[in-house]
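User: My collaborator sent over this chain with a note saying "see what the structure looks like." That's all I know about it. Can you take a look?
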Amino acid sequence: MKKNQFDFDQLPHNIAVSATIADIEEKKGFIDYFRFVIEVRTKGGSKYLIYRRYREFFNLHQILESKYSPENPEKPGPNTCVLPTLPGKVFMGNKREIAESRIPDLNTYMKRLLGLPTWFLVDEALRMFFYQTDQDSQHEPRALRRLRPPTRKVKTIKPKMDLFSSPRAEAMFDFRGNGKAELNLKRGEVIFLLQRVNADWLEGTVNNQTGIFPQSFVKIIKPLPDSDTEGEGECPTYSCLRCFLLTPSGVDTRDVCVQEALTIQPTYKELLSRMRNVFKVDDIALNYRDHEGDLIRILDDEDVQLMIEESRGQQGKVKRPVNQFPWELHATLASDLSVYNVEA
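Assistant: Without extra context I'll predict from the sequence alone. Here is the result:
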């Protein structure tokens, strides 16, 4: 064995040696996307689940290529190796179908990646990719379809729902959701309640669809039990962002709820795309108010970071609901360079 080559027996027990995609899950954040539920097995024999987006695979591959790819693949030098091929980016099409179609290729990619020389397996970027973070360990998978034996048939008996004892509400007005996270309601429909998102929003299910909706559009028939009003249990956690569209004719105020932690830092592109969708306006620019009340234009990810850092310095000075982002977005028409003198 070469001196600079690791012996497999000497590898740490927490090194990943195999990984298989168990399922995909849709995440309804500022941008809706799918992530892969991956079962990882370590050298020590332990198993756990991690959750990764395709772009995290892509970023890992770029890092590994820059460090280990030989200039001449036919003559790899010391401490270099030929990496497996990562399936390319797809820019158009149904997101679920794209994610499903990538599963076989990504499984092959991970198998070949973890089958490279043992010295490669201790790379820090590779170890962090397959490491189970606190967020990974706290998340409950919705399903693990691809870990079930394909020949095994399991008979599932669904418990009967007592419609008269379930928490529920009746829609008093039509409501059209702003994204996949929000339900569409028609007057007279009965919504079965799952949890309270905040003082103004609830989560429920109607017509085999699950999502959130404003409480002001419904009449509560049977309220949620006290233990569910704080969002306990395995239901996804929502955070709400207050945003404004400032125009010469006035201010349009919206609350946008997403399945994201309050600590997340979305990208500029994600925020711009979401605001265009919420206000149905393409000619839009993003701004935030500084501690003096002036509008500051947001142009890139660094500006988003500055907005979030400044909002943290103002926490405690402005009273907000527990699950509301400490920062707010003020959208203006990009074609209008004036600052509207409107109180938000």
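A starting point for your reply to your collaborator: The first strand starts at residue 16 and ends at 28.
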